[in-house]
Amino acid sequence: MEKELKKIARNVRKNIILMSMRAKSAHTGGALSCVEILVALYFKIMKVFPKDPQNPARDRLIFSKAHDGKVLYAVLAERGFFNKKILDGYEQDGGKLPGHSTRRCVPGVEASAGALGHGLSMAAGMAYVGKQDNKKFRVFTVLSDGECDEGSTWEAILFSGHHKLDNLTAIVDYNKLQGYGFTKDVLDLEPFAAKWMSFGWEAKEIDGHNFNEIIGILSKLPLKTGKPSVIIAHTIKGLGGVPAHINQVSSQYKPPSEEEAHEAIKKLKIE
Amino acid sequence: MRIAFVNTLFEMAKKDKRIMLLTGDLGFSVFEKYIQELPKQYLNMGVAEQNMTGVGAGMAMEGKIPVIYSIVPFTTMRNFEQIRNDICYQNLNVKIVGVGAGFSYGPYAHTHHGLEDIGILRTLANLIILCPGDPIEVALATKAVLNHIGPVYLRLGRAGEPNIHKTIPSFKIGKGILIEDGKDLTIIGTSTFLQRAWEVASSLKEKGLLVRLISMHTIKPLDTQIILESARKTPAIFTLEEHSIIGGLGSAVAEALAEANVPVLFKRIGVPDRFSKVIGSQEYMRRANGLSIDQIIEQISSSLD
After folding, report:
1. ipTM
2. Among partner residues B40, B43, B54, which is closest to A118 by beta-carbon distance?
């Protein structure tokens, strides 16, 4: 199983690198850091219907760190929600795929996000309705560490804990790098898990690149009955991309040149 | 206005279980009956308006009709980006209700005044802006808001406003209501200043001027037809609003008139572009801003001279 997922992850990384290269776009590092998280969600954890994307029984995912939309697009395409050719239009004139993922720009994208600190509230609203109406679907959201600076994120954390939304799971892509520095230097989030737990959530920390750990923990949801779950996924920004940008602020901004892209893709295949 | 809103909302929510009232921790002595009878359709979101707006968007995605309610600045400005991105950009069926238009909360100071909401919200695509002018219009507007599919902002006064309409008018989103016809000048009022417009028109009538009086309960989409008709039928148009002179009804009407290129005397009457240095009751604040009945009549008279 892991072998197969790793292969999918490699394809996703390749497409992220190609999209960045073609569009000369920013936000490559944060897309690369949550590849395994999204692959695990869409291929092993979530109930999805690629050919019937709005099926009411589906699990929902709000991709709150929408600035890294290309990872979501690449995973959805890999999962069969739409033709991979559409990826060529990422951030291109007249293309279908905006830099920040936008509701229903392609099948499978649930919500528009991009302004940080919006996604968790929307996910909480969906989860509240799910519980109230006794629906079976679950709601997932992937947050960036940077957006945990936003007060609105903490409003939503407080709300979800208070209402015991145990059908809601937040996964933080904790790559420790935000827009212009390391989180510990800009606005330290630690003790991070303890903060969530004090707001009524159950928290677990994992290696966000290890499929066994990701799938292991996401198969046991909710982590605690009567509480929303947060998975703090320790990740490496830019992993699998251009080596010079791995775990560097530059991974947020510098698109790969054609040569760098091909080098990085070649390396993906070897590993 | 608040009572007319709550009663209409209550009646409709009883029939339509999709309606969800979300409040920003207020509504004492207003919502008790609703909460008691429809507990599952009510949620006090706490003092967290950004989250209230995002949660509303999430609920709308799941087929609910959320009504988010707070005092004007907190339900339009604190959460403006959530209104823009979560509700309007995604074109979701969320209703935004602001109570306390203009100087309704006069003594509370500027933090609680509702003076810039129309101006900022008018820039948002997909959003309908309703500013009913008396309790009768509020009841009709509330019904229209809940029946409309898509984002709407409903601007309310506070309590105790009198009815201006003598009978129930026909109410349609985007269609101004002609309350009285007259040939000498047109006064267009909106929201809490429909009453003022009516008071001013009555005083002018005593002075022998025949006023064409219009209630512009919808600011967006604007009824340009009734504006241009007024420009043809009367030599002057005045807009009256308890809102900043910038961005509200007056600005919207000015845009329509300027582009139509019709010769008509036009003047916006609203709250001057400054923060009030005084505090006091709604009527005190209006006078302090040149908006008492006699001050407005003075402005109109000097314009007509």
Report:
1. 0.96
2. B54
